[in-house]
Amino acid sequence: MSLKLFKHLLLATCYTHNNFKLSLTKPNATMFTHFLNLLATIISVASLLIVTYGALIAVIQFLLNEVKRFTGGYSTTNIRRLRSVFGTYLLLGLEFLIASDILKTVLEPTMTELIILGGIVVVRTILSVFLNKEIKELESDTKVVPKKS
User: Fold this and answer.
1) CA 74, 80, 82, 87: dihedral to nearest 10 degrees?
2) CA angle (50 as vertex; 48, 53 as ends), nearest 5
């Protein structure tokens, strides 16, 4: 955090004598709101980049595994591993999206925003449960199947 931004945030807070709480003055409150909106947008873009990167990796790994069909190195275990890796990127992207939506909900606490946030949390939870189950199954499968040397 730059010193100038920190100074502006400190100047934006003022001490109210009536109820002894820190509050923001009107002009600085809008500046802080704009900052939080910008932060939420940056986090949303980061979420999009994470999911896109994970999808790119998954497509490349999938194509490499399909090429192995012709050379005899194809494995369904590789497909399951690919699904777990891609799922991990999806979950990380959803975590960032949840953080962004929490910021947006704090700024504009409308019923629509709360419903969207709740839906994302439910989807993320369901994905997490099934991904963790699949990772455990994959780990148990790789322990049972001996590696070829």
Assistant:
1) 170
2) 105
Tokens of 6: 């920190």
- Phi/psi of residue 123, each to 5°? -60, -45
The token pair at 90 is 């999806």
Q: Is the pTM of this model over 0.70?
A: no
Query: Cβ contacts of residue 74 below 8 Å, gap of 6+?
Result: 65, 66, 68
Cβ 87 vs Cβ 131: under 8 Å? yes
Retrieve residue 50's tokens.
């994470």
Band of residue 47 on the pLDDT scale cut at 50, 70, 90: very high
**Of 14, 29, 40, 10, nearest to 102 (Cα)?**
40
User: What is the percentage of the chain residues whose pLDDT exceeds 90?
Assistant: 17
Cα dihedral value 108, 112, 114, 116, nearest 10: -120
